[in-house]
Amino acid sequence: MHRPFATVMTDFGCPFGCSFCNSRSFGYALRDIDDIMAELEHIHKMGVKQLFIKDMSFASSKPHAKRLLEKNDRSAVDFKWNCIAAPMLSTTRSPR
Ligand code: SF4
After folding, report:
1. Which has the closest alpha carbon to 31: 78, 67, 77?
2. How far is the CA of 34 from the centre of ligand 1 (A)?
3. pLDDT tens-place string over residues 32-57
4. Per-residue pLDDT tens for 52-93?
5. Contact criterion met (CB below 8 Å) for 61 and 16
6. Regarding the domain delimited by 5-89, which CATH topology (the fold level of the hierarchy) does it fall under?
7. DSSP state of 92
8. C-beta separation of 36 from 10 below 8 A
9. Spatial distance between the Cα atoms of 38 and 42, rounded to a whole number of angstroms
10. pTM, whole model, 2 decimals?
């Protein structure tokens, strides 16, 4: 763990509806990429070194996550980060 750390959400809720989980009852919404980047740039300036992406399942929208990660790669922000993601999102290949 690198300190200081912060939490960030890139979406709200979860689209998958696993039978044992009530996450879907909260709805599902994606945050605007520019809004997320503005938050990341702000906390980066504050000296944050590590992020916990607090989504119920990060990258539940792969196109949204890909756009975010690509935009982050082109920015000056640099974090160690971790997240929770649904196992059905795993792949043996890199996302395209
Ligand atoms: S993927 Fe995770 S958060 Fe989403 S419905 Fe299933 S258990 Fe809940």
Report:
1. 67
2. 26
3. 999 999 999 999 999 999 999 999 99
4. 999 999 999 999 999 999 999 999 999 999 999 988 888 766
5. no
6. Transcription Regulator spoIIAA (3.30.750)
7. S
8. yes
9. 6
10. 0.86
